[in-house]
Amino acid sequence: MTQRLSLTVNGEHHELDVPENRTLFQLIRENLHLTGTKDACRQGVCGSCTVLVDGIAIRSCLALAVRCHGKHITTVEGLKTDGKVNRLQQEFMDAGAVQCGYCTPGMLMMATALLRENAAPTDEEVREALIGNLCRCTGYGRVVRAVVAAGASRGTEPAKPLAAEQ
Amino acid sequence: MSLPRFDYRAPKTVEEAIELRQEFGDDALVMAGGLATMILLRERLVSPRVIVSLSEVPALRRIEANGGLRIGAMVTHSEVAGSTLVAKTAPMLRGACKRVGSPAIRNMGTLGGSICHGDAASDTAPALLALGAEAVIAGPAGDRRLPLNEFFVGMLTTALRGNELLTALYVPQPAAGTETRFIKYTATSAEAFSTVTVAVWIALDDTRTCVDARIGLGSIAPTPLRAAAAENVLRGQKLSREVIAEAAAAAMTCTDPSSGGQGSAGYRREMTGVWVRRLLDDMASR
């Protein structure tokens, strides 16, 4: 059985028929061909499939697509502004926070959610927010540095909504 | 691996959800936040014909204060942790919800879903048990309330009947002189399942004598449970070193742990005693 879904992904509206047993992760990659979102554990533990649903970070591997009817989804592809990487992504590159890169999309989405609630997080707060995002290259130090830098560069100015959601 | 096939229904009211439960019986599986359910589906440990999703029932998403706290079954752990009502009435529950998994898991997982899953390693169950919470259950004949310590009946098994729905958790208003402590002790990393979780609630009179006590334990038996033997030691006593040591030893006798990634059975039993003692020591030193 399929259901007709209407949802917005990275600012783009989609209407599509989706099998009821399809996960949001499958919808993103297989229906929409947005392959930035990764999966590894499929149990909600590793964080690599993290996306934002109406601005809230969730695990797309544990979300049914049919539950996302009418919602705004943001994936890592939606972070770019004016066709360029955003501040957070630039800080990841500058800090050398990307090694194999598999966990990076999930890290970026979780950090995006954090920076919206807390414009200038401390080391400790970043570590707490990213506790469920595993990096098997163990490059955590640079990831934390990048997120702190992205916050500090903006001072305490509240986070702007992503272009993709406006 | 993809999920098995099923039909998906998203009722708008509790009544509709119960009707679907009655219509499909054991062929229906109720989905709250979906975390445990999705894993069970993917692993083919369950194969329902119909998923009854509670995500479209607004009545289950509210936190209300009426002579205590009524927390809707579909309120997420993040929402419980962020609620000023919960912070005021049941700060221990707030603390417990902040220790559930990681932030994205807390954004998805619900208090009611976690309780209905009945996992012994639930972080919130020990806190709710110690707070004297009740399960608010709706069925075809109306509502009933069940003390939470009668709700967990076996491994991943609850007292919920096939045509019933957990609609809320009720947490009583704290009386004057009550104190709480909570620890989720993990042997590996902070977001992992606990080695042991201990939640202590005690009521003290003017002379600092313990007039009542409830101790909730997690991860140390097939279900979350109350350490009744330890509670009995504390009632009517001052929190002396001797009484605390006796209560900690009694709590260990309430455990029936299994060995696993978060600790051997012996270690879990030992740590139960250690943490009951430490939490009570901390209360006694105030």
Explained architecture:
The complex is a heterodimer of chains A (166) and B (286). Chain A folds into two domains: 78 residues, Beta-grasp domain (Ubiquitin-like (UB roll)); 71 residues, [2Fe-2S]-binding domain (DNA polymerase, domain 1). The termini of chain A are far apart. A five-stranded mixed β-sheet of chain A has the order 2-1-5-3-4, with helices on one face. By secondary structure, chain A is an alpha+beta fold. In chain A, helix 2 crosses helix 5. Helix content of chain A is 31%, strand content 16%. The longest helix of chain B has 20 residues. The mean pLDDT of chain B is 96. Chain B has three domains: 47 residues, Uridine Diphospho-n-acetylenolpyruvylglucosamine Reductase, domain 2 (2-Layer Sandwich); 115 residues, Uridine Diphospho-n-acetylenolpyruvylglucosamine Reductase, domain 3; 106 residues, 2-Layer Sandwich (Enolase-like, domain 1), CATH 3.30.390.50. With 286 residues, chain B is an alpha+beta fold. In chain B, helix 9 packs antiparallel against helix 10 and helix 10 runs antiparallel to helix 11. Chain B contains eleven helices and 15 strands. Chain B is 35% helix and 26% strand. The interface between A and B is medium-sized, with 31 and 29 residues.
Number of helices in the DSSP assignment of chain A: 5
Annotated CATH topology of the largest domain in chain B = Uridine Diphospho-n-acetylenolpyruvylglucosamine Reductase, domain 3
Please give the most extensive interface between any two protein chains, plus how many residues each contributes: A-B, 31 and 29 residues
Order of strands across the main sheet of chain B = 4-5-10-6-7
Features of the shown structure:
heterodimer; A: about 170 residues; alpha+beta; Ubiquitin-like (UB roll); DNA polymerase, domain 1; 2 domains; 5-stranded mixed β-sheet; 5 strands; about 15% strand; globular; B: about 290 residues; Uridine Diphospho-n-acetylenolpyruvylglucosamine Reductase, domain 2; Uridine Diphospho-n-acetylenolpyruvylglucosamine Reductase, domain 3; Enolase-like, domain 1; 3 domains; 5-stranded antiparallel β-sheet; 11 helices; 15 strands; about 25% strand
